[in-house]
Amino acid sequence: MSDVLSKFCPFFIQVDRTGQIINLGPSMAKVLGVIGANIPADTNFLDLFQITRPANVKSISSLAQGDGIKLSLYLRAHPDIRMKAAVSHDPQTDMVFLSPSFGIGVQAAIGRFGLTMTDFATTDMVPELLYLIEANQAAMQASKRLTLRLQGAKAAAEEQAQSDTLTGLRNRRGLDAALDHLITHRQKFSIIQMDLDRFKAVNDTYGHAAGDAVLTHVAKVMRRETRQCDILVRLGGDEFLIILPDLTDAGRLAQLGQAIISGIETPVMFDGEMCHVSASLGVMTCSDTLAPDVNHDALLVQVDHAVYAAKDAGRGCVRFVSDLMAVDG
Fold first, then answer.
1. Residue 111: DSSP 8-state
2. Confidence (pTM)
3. Cα distance between residue 47 and residue 74, in whole Å
């Protein structure tokens, strides 16, 4: 039953008569920062969620009596993101099931919790809503391109100079500009650096055109799994990097890293041949107290050590700079 709920209601919540959260859909677990099925024993629904409507629902018992009602609620830790939820009570087990959704606030939720399309049920209206959002963004980008043309070739050339010609991701120049902005504005962020595993074998066996197809595939995976505000970079060769503003939660970063690895490990078909690669990832979190003149190369050296730790651990995995520092200490 839990597998069925996870498939069709990935944000479901199961609560017992005391208010204890017994089970979570995988997407709600991601929102709450729960890794796997490890729900803390003292996790109470009403400690995490504030019910605003109906006004008479203030306890788990009143929630259980409201079988079939619709709730308005929000996470106490994120009161600006409002949610709706349908309620169902099972009298045999005295369990309450809730199926929350973000409604029109889904875009903010996606940015806040690092959600992707795979976190929503296939029948959810989110794809259509995001399509409209993306269409609006595409229109805004078209307007931006027009503005660039009106501003002259110099501005357009500057933007092109910060892009990688093969993948369309930012290059090292674009990375430096992004880091300067984040550090100057004292914004916390994380860095994920990754090296492809077995990429040289693809180039040597099938040629550089096959290698280019793999690099393009990697860029697509990065775009699919990340938020629009994240900065995606190809450092050169088979080295890539992601800057994630305002995302420093280790659990979410680990989930994102595994999702990227899984996507990259999907074989790429080129000229009738299956090209197999993986990736080793290093992760570093940066606070909002970095000195304005911090050396970018010094940051990248630290996260590069984590990449090599991932390779030493067997490749195709994620390692954190903080874990390496703890070992060294």
1. H
2. 0.53
3. 11
